[in-house]
# Entry
Amino acid sequence: MQQSKAKLAANYLVETVKQSEEEDLDARMAADEAASKAAIAKAFERVSQDSAKSADTYMEESFALLQTAMDKMPEEEKNRELKKLKPMAEQVPGDPDSETPLKATLLINLGNAHYEHSILRAAGKLDWKSSIQKAQELFKEAGAADVDIRNALKGHPMAEEMKDIIGPDPETKKTPKGLPALSQSKKKKSGK
# Structure
């Protein structure tokens, strides 16, 4: 709720984008992405330095509410050691291995609040990098998968200016062509 109030205070209103009617899936996705980026750029233009500063109070309230929720967690949950979460693309509803513990959920929500704050501050041409770095730290503390953190950071409107935070793309493993040769010991055991 406070994050929505912050966006209103900052005048950061992103218009809903009508989905493309392109028949080709790739063309439709490209058109939708372009329209979404244009809507975000338009919202950025409406934010002034003063309106972005006025959003700070609401964002601070949001941080405080989430921190209160964390403080009220049962001691067992507070002390829980968080393990790495499955990437979002691999999570299956109802699968116990895909469940996100309460502590991780609250840390991710707090990270999302800092992420949103960084957008508002960037739009108002204020210091925003400390907010995105805080978001990244919270996502990591929550155990979010590296691929999900990278995707979130790459989706930030200022992604081009934060390559130092995002870091280089991980190297993909090269798949060898053809089948591997059987070793001599395996050939002897099979009687060949």
In short: Residues 183-188 have pLDDT under 50 and may be disordered. Residues 2-166 form one domain. Residues 10 and 51 are 4 Å apart (CA to CA). The first helix runs from residue 2 to 10.
